[in-house]
Amino acid sequence: MEDRHKKKITDIVMxxxxxxxxxxxxxxxxxxxxxxxxxYYDFQDFGIALEEMNESISSIFILQKDSFTKEKSFMDxxxxxxxxxxxxxxxxxxxxxxxxxxxxxxxxxxxxIDNILxxxxxxxxxxxxxxxLYAYNEALIHAxxxxxxxxxxxxxxxxxxxxxxxxxxxxxxxTIANDLIDSEEYSFLQDFKGDFEEVHFLRAKKFSExxxxxxxxxxxxxxxxxxxxxxxxxxxxxxxxxxxxIYGLNEETQYKVLYHKGSREVTLYSWxxxxxxxxxxxxxxxxxxxxxxxEEILAKFGDVGFLYxxxxxxxxxxxxxQSITYAYIQKIDDVYDEQQKVxxxxxNYGAVSKLYIVDHDDIEMKLPLVSQEEILEKLSPDxxxxxxxxxxxxxxxMEYEVHILYEGTTYGVIFDGDTGGLKYYGRERRNYNQxxxxxxxxxxxxxxx
Length: 449
Description:
Elements: H1 2-62, H2 77-94, H3 102-117, H4 124-148, H5 157-164, H6 166-181, H7 198-215, E1 223-224, E2 233-237, E3 254-260, E4 265-272, H8 287-299, E5 306-315, E6 321-332, E7 335-347, E8 352-358, H9 372-376, E9 384-392, E10 398-406, E11 409-416, E12 422-426, E13 441-445
Helix pairs in contact: 1-2, 1-4, 2-6, 4-6
C-alpha cells in the first residue's frame, strides 16, 4: 500500500516535471521564433533604407538644387537603430564579433551630406563622395537581396529558410559590408566630412584669430588642423596637443577655437588650466565684477544685441559662485537673428571659459512670406498660445516659433516662415523672447574637493 502511494507521488512529480519542461521548451521555441522574425524584418527594413538613401542621392544630381529639401534625412534613423540592435543580438547568438566599421558611416551620413549641400554647390571631391557612397550602397543592396532571395511570400520555403538562417545572414552580410568599407575603393568614405577650399581656411583663420585676440589678448593661436582635409571643423589652438604631457610646467591657460566649416559657428573654449595655480579664493570675482568684465570684453565685438539669458552656476557645497554665462542676440525688424548671437562664459576667477559667435555674411534680412495670423490659424482655436516670434536661423531661413501650453506643459512649435510648413514640435524651446522679462537662471553643481 505504502509503495503504491510512493509510486503515485513519484508519477505526479514526474508528470509535473515533464509539463514544466515542455512549457519551458515551448516558450523558448516561441521566443526564439519571435526573435528570428524581428531580426528578419529589421534586416529587411535596413535594405529598404539603403534603397531609399540611394533614391535621395540620385535626386541631388538629377533635380535642381532649389527642388531639394534642406536638412533632409538620408538614412532612416529608426531602421538603422533597429538593424544595429538585431545585429548585436545576432552576434551574441552566433558568437561572431559585434565590432564592424561600416555602421559608423551610416551614423554620420546625414551630417556629412548636410555639410556638402550647405553652400549650394557640390565640389568634385564631394561629388566623388556621393557617387562612391551610392556605389557602396548598391553593393550592399545586392548582397542584401542575395541573402534574402525571393522572400515576398511568407509561406514560401525561401522565406522560412531566410528566417531560420537569419543569424548567419547577419554575420555574412556584415563581413561583406566591412570588407568593402575597408577596401581601397571605399575606405575614404569613413573620414570624409565635406570639401572646403583654401579660401575657407584663410577666412576661418582670420576670423578665429580676430575673435581670440579680443577675448584673450595676451596669447596667440599658432597651431591648427589644416592638414586634416576631411574634418568638418577647423581647430586653432594655443598649444600643441603634445603639451598635455608636460602640463604643469606651463601655467598659461590653454585654449582652442573651433570653426565649423558648414555653419561658420565659432566656439572658443579653455581646455587646460582654467584656474591659474597662483590664485586663491581672495581673487575670486563677485557677480557684479563678472558682469562688468563681461561688458568690457563684449564691447570689443561692437553691438552684440540684447541680453536674453544670464545663467549663474553655484557650487552646492560651498555655495560660492562658479561661473556666469551671458547670452545675447540681435533683434532686427522684430526678428531674432541666430546669425548674430553671442554667448560668453566667465569663471569666478575672471577667465574666459567659453565664447560662441557666428562668422556671418551681412546679407539683408528678408521678412517671412507667411504672416503671423496665418501661422496662428494653423493651431486649434482653443490652443493656449504663450508666445510667437520670428527667427532667422543659422542657414538664413525665416521661421516662426510658437510656445503653446497643453495640460500644464509648454511646447515649442516651429513653422517655416516662407511656406508655413511644420518644422518642429516638442519640448525644446528657444527663449529669445525673454529679452525684457528674463529672470536669471541658477545652475547648481556638486561640491568639489
